[in-house]
């Protein structure tokens, strides 16, 4: 196979995270070459590249007793290491150590005990020298011809990617790869758990990995211009970097080069598991953070280790669960939390004593994700049954109940406190030894019992009042508050709430929806699933999917009924019904452009939450205006999860039977291949066109008697490079008098929609990117016209 190289110019500012307070032995005017006769020791000035850009020498991280050989930007006052030689073999005294050329031709680091590090090349037959180049690459070269390179540091990156270096896969025949590996801590360059690799399965996307086994972030595939999930990488006329992708038989890699030698950047996978990109700003004499991925540091897998809790503040912080302490205090003090926490009191693993264990309740959390998570179907009846199921297994460490019982065995990983991020989370109960609960708690319980006896007369009177209220509301005797917010209704309850299902709001393929009212006069929408076989499947999908998630742009499930063959779901009531009625209905209401834009943004936020913020990735599979509900403030809520597909975080796609609605189906549905969350992105893009035009995406006869498809019309207008964009003809004609129509926003939405419906799912953006574009955080390029649109007009 011939080499395929595609250089693309993009604005792609890269960098690495700062090593706080690093002490470096620096100097000016030193030579750039290491020879047998001129070794480098701690008492000498470092080697400096010809133009003075990079230096090679001994350095000592802040609060560390160890010394290392490393490379740093020489013209930046804040000296930050970009490469380390002896990262797993530090030295204690640089004055007794030296970097030199050995008798076998290798570059070696020696101390009083012998060889600490070596380039470790075999079969060297010529005399050699070491040279630090202006791109920061340390090379071992032939003395007589230094262009003959025998070894280079660019083949052995640490946590930092420098321009001109390759990060990718090695030979397809021999394997191997060049990856970035984070430091263990901010002052310890020992290889840590987090790394950045080019997808070993052969795609053009980068993956952030934990322990080389768990993927927790992806860049998205390379489109020829950008990575689909890295919006900060934007093509501009002010070209700063040339970013090249090479895919050949021998190797596949990305490489970037600077077109402006005055720009200094740092790209690093740091000790917290994030990619950090910095640019040096000379005016402020400081590094400016350009972007971080993943954006929320708590999204880094196992950042706080087993039984650790991550809290997203200005900087993410780790803490231990109640009843646990730091596994290794010294590591925590240096910012390494990956070993997590240990129990203060061990659980009993044999006999009946384990039944004495108790549970600590933690509210508003993102539930843990680990391989031991399981659903105990047999214990899904009540929170009490769920607790019993956990106590009956000595390996069970926690449970959560929200209509369905979830049990965890072994370590709890990725537990996150959501109190500071404005998202309603779940409740989890952590299993602890009975002795963890203080004597004070026991005494308080005893005091309550005594007080109850003393005030028995008052209690009796109270009971009479409660019974009276109960009798007044006896028709709701079957309503049971379930852990979290779900309520279990009887069928008779729902008959009463809906006046025997007399006020029908609408219907669909899986049943009808009726208006109802709870005893406190709260309006609800009751969905009555019709057809036992189909309804049962629908019921299980909806309850297991949305019964455990909460988001302002997702419909809230209040309760359910599962009685014999009757399956009903109780939702919050949406006074402005569904989006299709507002867009295509015959009512007098016409959604303003401002409302439409906020609706599009809200839907994107809801889908982003489903795809990336839930315990499992949830693919909705049927995004269309009928499944978007609007409350009294026209806030959109993604609804109708009957076709949803849950996909574990260990998988990037899932094979499933065809589902959804014609007109919104992504091409991969038609071909029968496995789908990913990008199928929802396609459906969302098709729906965006309908939000813009106020019409169904159907062929419309134009004045010239030609047939045209609205998405194709919009795509052609966007890609028309001759003259100004005629965006007015795309907007709903009913908005002609709306002075609030922002044509810049119209162009932005059209562009996003065209990107979303690209034929290749790798070219479609993630919903996180869509949200950022609609929020105006960055601009995107004009996409190509999807080939499939042309076929739809034939």
What do you see in this structure?
This protein is an alpha+beta fold. The chain folds into 6 domains: about 15-160, Bulb-type lectin domain (Agglutinin, subunit A, Orthogonal Prism); about 160-295, Agglutinin, subunit A (Orthogonal Prism), CATH 2.90.10; about 305-435, no CATH class; about 440-470; about 480-570, 2-Layer Sandwich (Phosphorylase Kinase, domain 1); about 580-790, Transferase(Phosphotransferase), domain 1 (Orthogonal Bundle), CATH 1.10.510. Helices cover about 20% and strands about 30% of the residues. Helix 10 runs antiparallel to helix 12 (about 745-755). Residues about 1-30, about 235-240, about 375-380, about 440-485, about 645-660 and about 700-705 have low confidence and may be disordered. It is a single-pass type I membrane protein.
Radius of gyration: 31 Å
Structural class: alpha+beta
Question: How widely separated are the two ends?
Answer: 37 Å
CATH architecture of the largest domain: Orthogonal Bundle
Overall helicity: 10-25%
How many E-type strands?
48
Spatial order of the strands in the main sheet? Answer: 27-26-34-30-35-32-33-31
pLDDT below 50 for ≥5 consecutive residues: which ranges? Answer: 1-30, 234-239, 376-380, 439-484, 646-658, 699-707
Morphology: globular
């Amino acid at each position: 196979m011939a080499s395929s190289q595609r250089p693309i110019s993009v604005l792609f500012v890269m960098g690495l995270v700062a090593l706080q307070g690093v002490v470096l032995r620096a100097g000016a005017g030193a030579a750039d070459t290491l020879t047998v006769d001129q070794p480098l020791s701690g008492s000498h000035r470092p080697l400096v590249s010809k133009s003075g850009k990079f230096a090679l020498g001994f350095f000592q991280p802040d609060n560390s007793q160890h010394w290392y050989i490393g490379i740093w930007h020489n013209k930046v006052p804040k000296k930050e290491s970009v490469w380390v030689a002896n990262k797993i073999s530090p030295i204690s005294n640089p004055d007794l150590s030296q970097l030199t050329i050995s008798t076998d031709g290798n570059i070696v680091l020696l101390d009083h005990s012998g060889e600490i590090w070596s380039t470790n090349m075999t079969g060297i037959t010529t005399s050699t020298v070491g040279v630090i180049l202006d791109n920061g690459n340390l090379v071992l070269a032939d003395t007589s011809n230094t262009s003959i390179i025998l070894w280079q540091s660019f083949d052995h990156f640490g946590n930092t990617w420098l321009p001109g270096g390759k990060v990718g896969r090695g030979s397809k025949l021999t394997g191997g790869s060049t990856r970035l590996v984070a430091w263990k801590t901010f002052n310890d360059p020992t290889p840590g758990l987090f790394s950045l690799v080019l997808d070993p399965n052969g795609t053009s996307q980068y993956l952030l990995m934990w322990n080389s086994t768990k993927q927790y972030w992806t860049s998205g595939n390379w489109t020829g211009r950008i990575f689909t999930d890295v919006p900060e990488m934007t093509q501009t006329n002010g070209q700063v970097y040339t970013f090249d992708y090479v895919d050949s038989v021998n190797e596949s890699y990305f490489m970037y080069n600077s077109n402006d030698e005055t720009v200094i950047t740092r790209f690093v996978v740091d000790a917290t598991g994030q990619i950090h990109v910095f640019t040096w700003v000379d005016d402020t004499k400081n590094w400016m953070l350009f972007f971080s991925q993943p954006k929320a540091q708590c999204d880094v897998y196992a950042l706080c280790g087993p039984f650790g809790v991550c809290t997203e503040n200005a900087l993410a912080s780790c803490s231990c669960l109640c009843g646990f302490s730091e596994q290794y205090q010294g590591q925590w003090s240096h910012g390494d939390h990956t070993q997590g926490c240990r129990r203060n009191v061990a659980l009993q693993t044999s006999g009946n004593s384990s039944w004495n264990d108790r549970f600590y309740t933690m509210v508003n959390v993102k539930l843990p994700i680990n391989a031991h998570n399981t659903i105990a179907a047999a214990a899904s009846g009540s929170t009490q049954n769920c607790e019993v199921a956990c106590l009956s297994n000595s390996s069970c460490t926690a449970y959560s109940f929200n209509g369905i019982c979830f049990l965890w065995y072994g370590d709890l990983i990725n537990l996150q406190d959501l109190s500071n991020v404005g998202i309603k989370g779940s409740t989890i109960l952590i299993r602890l030894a009975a002795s963890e609960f203080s004597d004070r708690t026991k005494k308080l319980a005893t005091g309550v019992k005594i007080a109850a006896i003393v005030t028995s007369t008052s209690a009796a009177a109270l009971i009479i009042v409660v019974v009276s209220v109960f009798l007044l509301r006896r028709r709701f005797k079957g309503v049971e508050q379930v852990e979290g917010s779900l309520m279990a209704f009887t069928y008779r309850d729902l008959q009463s709430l809906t006046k025997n299902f007399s006020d029908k709001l609408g219907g669909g393929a899986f049943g009808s929806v009726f208006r109802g009212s709870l005893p406190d006069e709260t309006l609800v929408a009751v969905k009555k699933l019709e057809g036992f076989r189909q309804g049962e499947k629908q019921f299980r999908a909806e309850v297991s999917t949305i019964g455990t998630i909460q988001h302002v742009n997702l419909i809230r499930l209040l309760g359910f009924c599962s009685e014999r063959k009757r399956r009903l779901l109780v939702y919050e009531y949406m006074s402005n019904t569904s989006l299709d009625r507002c867009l295509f209905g015959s009512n007098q209401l016409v959604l303003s452009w401002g409302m439409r834009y906020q609706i599009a943004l809200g839907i994107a936020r809801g889908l982003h939450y489903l795809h990336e913020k839930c315990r499992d990735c949830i693919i909705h599979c049927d995004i269309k205006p009928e499944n978007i509900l609007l409350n009294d403030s026209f806030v959109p809520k993604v609804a109708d999860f009957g076709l949803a597909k849950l996909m574990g975080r260990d998988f990037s796609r899932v094979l499933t039977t065809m589902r959804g609605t014609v007109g919104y189906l992504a091409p991969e549905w038609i071909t029968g291949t496995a789908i990913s969350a990008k199928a929802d992105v396609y459906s969302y893009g098709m729906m965006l066109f309908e939000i813009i035009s106020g019409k169904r995406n159907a062929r419309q006869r134009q004045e010239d008697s030609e047939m045209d498809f609205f998405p194709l019309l919009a795509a052609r207008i966007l890609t028309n490079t001759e003259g100004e964009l005629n965006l007015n003809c795309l907007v709903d004609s009913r908005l002609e008098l709306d002075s609030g129509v922002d044509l810049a926003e119209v162009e932005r939405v059209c562009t996003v929609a065209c990107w979303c419906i690209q034929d290749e799912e790798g070219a479609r953006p993630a919903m996180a990117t869509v949200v950022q574009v609609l929020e105006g955080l960055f601009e995107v390029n004009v996409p190509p016209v999807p080939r499939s649109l042309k076929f739809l007009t034939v």
